[in-house]
């Protein structure tokens, strides 16, 4: 059974030639073709191909002078996909196999063909190398720029305005404890007023902080709105949809890449509660999509291109977290729809190259790939699993609360006037964030620095308030400090962190989904890290003051270093990130790659699994799946089981009271009849039958192919008029000698559309759609055509059975 059938509700795929010379941003205008988004599958823009099949050879086989082969050359636009349509996975893979067979057979004929065969095989690895280099370079540029611009809100370096605070003070002779107060770095009050003390200096610094934050965020939202609307948000829900076979032209184009890179720096620097990790995946996928144009086999094949995008997503996470293996697992677990073994190896290579490139740039000056790399020295005790599981429960509750609240807010944004004022929304949220953030040092610093501080294991030289313990140096053994009583600095830090937690929990709900690039990994980790650090300090003080309790005796004696609050922060960060995204395996691997702590895998696994169970008990969807559903992307979730006992006849259209299915007969309709059908319906394709009476199926023809073929025949073939008969058979039907020229369109007919019988269980139909990447299949009964099932119909049926609004399944 061929999978060549095209969904009636989908607008896109053209049979025939497959070569596309058009770029991602271009879209062919087809007369009379209205976009029907209902069948949209979310795939990033991949280029269309025009070329190669002898598809459109109209013209007669009877040798009469009134017939001609008017499509000697493949027509532009034939055999390509339109915007907001699903690709035909089976056909794309089949085309690639044919291409590969041809190259292999030719390689035995000449040396040049053999070289071409080797270069074709090597091109995939070369493409991965280029993606890794470009993604790593852009990530380094983003890290360095964001670090500098974040510090710019607080002051400027006199030795060179391009230095951030830390780099500015590297050559300073200040002591370790005063390393942040070097003379080369001046706050805005010192620069303008000449001194940094007093109420007026504080107000001036406060004012400059808010002004810079507003400037950065407004510049970001204006650039997104003016040049690349697709550059907003995280990008991961759209990339998931694109990887499942959907096309969104321009989503992975060059303008999106340029604007997303610039605005990501601005958004992160503005101090908004967002991260750069999700958008870095989008940036890496843009790199992959653009570099695909250099290689014919990826430029001309949408399925092959999606394999590249899966690997690019892995490279994006690799540079976001400095976690190459975590990146590969993230692409496999969270993003990819089709992930063959070959893609796994190439993802591994792309992630390796990207991480190596970022390490060579060394954006943080500490030879690490991330700002919050940390190493713990003390092992954890079995009894500590109890607080770790409590953190997992907190992460699950926070994840479920965040998803519900954020989706409710985003729905309000879509359905009310709020969505019409994106610039005003960004302005207000930034203003509130900056005004609330400045007085608290833990919200004033960048979120990455905050996480770094929370993960930190207090040493002798640490001057942070979180490490202001009452020291008793008589009991110090080597580098390990014993558990100590908390000093006033620790208690102050606890209050500030509690306030920071409340602010982060609520402000992130309103920030994620605004019209600026916004990732969710860092804010989620920050919420968990604050909660974890608070719990860790509480357990540490409990063990210090009550070391004789039964739960502590035997493993936490007085003067021992047994509780590591930084480890609790790390476990809390993993729990909250897991609660929001529902990642498990990739999350644990990313976290231990971040921290270099292999012995902490069990606490991380316990917290991640607990948070997933708790969050799943409240709501099954992770944040990305929830946004896919909110936006109405036609994404058929492969992880969900279909357990209902419906049949194909219950889902197909037309339904019992609907008008009959729109069909074209194989040899009895005129050009005018077909044009009338095209103008009166919005379907993407039409079944072709022997006759209206018999309804015996012949094949399936695409709307766009019909439009292009008829338009070209009118221009290039003499005698084609409105009364000319169109036929899809090998031989022309017998007509009176006086009748006008006939138009043969057999070459654009798909003779092997996928069909099922009306009694096929829907669970099998859903499985076929998922595993073969179908866009539609035709339903027959005893060989007669009954109806059609499109991907949109399947999604609507699933939504209906889940008591959701079936009309929400269209591209909003």
TrEMBL record:
Catalytic activity of the protein: 2 chloride(in) + H(+)(out) = 2 chloride(out) + H(+)(in)
Main localization (coarse): membrane
SMART domains referenced in this protein's UniProt entry, alphabetically: CBS
Residue span(s) of domain CBS: 652-716, 742-808
Domain of life: Eukaryota
Family to which this protein belongs: Belongs to the chloride channel (TC 2.A.49) family. ClC-5/CLCN5 subfamily.
Protein name from the UniProt record: Chloride channel protein
Annotated source species: Bubo bubo
């Amino acid at each position: 059974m061929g999978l060549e059938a095209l969904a009636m509700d989908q607008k896109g795929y053209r049979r025939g030639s497959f070569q596309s010379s058009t770029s991602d941003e271009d879209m062919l205008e087809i007369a009379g073709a209205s976009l029907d988004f209902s069948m949209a599958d979310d795939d990033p823009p991949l280029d269309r191909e025009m070329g190669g099949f002898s598809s459109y050879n109209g013209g007669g086989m009877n040798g009469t002078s009134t017939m001609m082969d008017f499509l000697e050359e493949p027509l532009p636009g034939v055999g390509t996909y339109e915007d907001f349509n699903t690709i035909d996975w089976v056909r794309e893979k089949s085309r690639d196999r044919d291409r590969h067979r041809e190259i292999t057979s030719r390689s035995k004929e000449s040396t040049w063909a053999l070289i071409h065969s080797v270069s074709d095989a090597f091109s995939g690895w070369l493409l991965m190398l280029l993606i890794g280099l470009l993604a790593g370079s852009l990530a380094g540029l983003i890290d360095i720029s964001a670090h500098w611009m974040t510090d710019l809100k607080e002051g400027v370096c006199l030795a060179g305005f391009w230095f951030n605070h830390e780099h500015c003070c590297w050559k300073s002779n200040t002591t370790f404890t005063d390393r942040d107060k070097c003379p080369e770095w001046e706050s805005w009050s010192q620069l303008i007023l000449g001194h940094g003390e007093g109420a007026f200096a504080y107000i001036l610094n406060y004012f400059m902080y808010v002004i810079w934050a507003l400037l950065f965020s407004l510049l970001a939202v204006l650039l997104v709105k003016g040049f690349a609307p697709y550059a907003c948000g995280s990008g991961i829900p759209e990339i998931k949809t694109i990887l499942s076979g959907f096309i969104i032209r321009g989503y992975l184009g060059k303008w999106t890449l340029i604007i997303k890179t610039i605005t990501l720096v601005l958004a992160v620097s503005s101090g908004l509660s967002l991260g750069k990790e999700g958008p870095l995946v989008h940036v890496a996928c843009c790199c992959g999509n653009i570099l695909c144009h250099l290689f014919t086999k990826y430029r001309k094949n949408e399925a092959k291109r999606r394999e590249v995008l899966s690997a690019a997503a892995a490279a994006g996470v690799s540079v976001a977290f400095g976690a190459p293996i975590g990146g590969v697992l993230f692409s496999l677990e969270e993003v990819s729809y089709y992930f063959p073994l070959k893609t796994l190896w190439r993802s591994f290579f792309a992630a390796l190259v990207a991480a190596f490139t970022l390490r060579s740039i060394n954006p943080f000056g500490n030879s690490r790939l991330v700002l919050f790399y940390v190493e713990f020295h003390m092992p954890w005790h079995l009894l500590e699993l109890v607080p770790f599981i409590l953190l997992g429960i907190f992460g699950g509750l926070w994840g479920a609360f965040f998803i519900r609240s954020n989706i409710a807010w985003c729905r309000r944004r879509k359905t009310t006037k709020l969505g019409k004022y994106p610039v005003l929304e960004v302005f207000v949220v930034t203003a509130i964030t900056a005004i609330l953030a400045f007085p608290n040092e833990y919200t004033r610093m960048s979120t990455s620095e905050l996480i770094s501080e929370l993960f930190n294991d207090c040493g002798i030289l640490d001057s942070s308030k979180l490490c202001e313990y009452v020291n008793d140096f008589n009991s110090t053994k080597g580098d390990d400090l014993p558990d100590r009583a908390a000093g006033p600095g620790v208690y102050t830090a606890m209050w500030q962190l509690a306030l920071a937690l409340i602010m982060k929990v609520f402000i992130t709900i309103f920030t994620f989904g605004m019209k600026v690039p916004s990732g969710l990994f860092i804010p989620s980790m920050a919420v968990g890290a604050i909660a974890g650090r608070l719990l860790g300090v509480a357990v540490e003080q409990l063990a210090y003051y009550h070391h004789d309790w039964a739960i502590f005796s035997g493993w936490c004696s007085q003067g021992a270093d047994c509780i590591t609050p930084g480890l609790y922060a790390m476990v809390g960060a993993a729990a909250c990130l897991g609660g929001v995204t529902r990642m498990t395996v990739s999350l644990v691997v990313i976290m231990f790659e971040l921290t270099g702590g292999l012995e902490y895998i069990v606490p991380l696994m316990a917290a991640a699994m607990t948070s997933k169970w708790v969050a799943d008990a409240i709501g099954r969807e992770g944040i990305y799946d929830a946004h896919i559903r909110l936006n109405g992307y036609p994404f058929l979730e492969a992880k969900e089981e279909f357990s209902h006992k419906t049949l194909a006849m219950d889902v197909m259209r037309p339904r019992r009271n609907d008008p009959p299915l729109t069909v074209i007969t194989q040899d009895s309709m005129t050009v005018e009849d077909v044009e009338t059908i095209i103008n009166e319906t919005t379907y993407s394709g039409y079944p072709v039958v022997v006759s209206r009476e018999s309804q015996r199926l012949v094949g399936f023809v695409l709307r766009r192919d019909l439009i292009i073929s008829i338009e070209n025949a009118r221009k290039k073939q003499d005698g084609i008029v409105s009364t000319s008969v169109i036929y899809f058979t090998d031989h022309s039907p017998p007509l009176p000698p006086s009748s006008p020229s006939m138009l043969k369109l057999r070459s654009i007919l798909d003779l092997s559309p996928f069909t099922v019988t009306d009694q096929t269980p829907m669970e099998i139909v859903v499985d076929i759609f998922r595993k073969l990447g179908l866009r539609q299949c035709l339903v027959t009964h005893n060989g007669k055509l009954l109806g059609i099932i499109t991907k949109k119909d399947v999604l609507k049926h699933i939504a209906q059975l889940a008591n959701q609004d079936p009309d929400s399944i269209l591209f909003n």
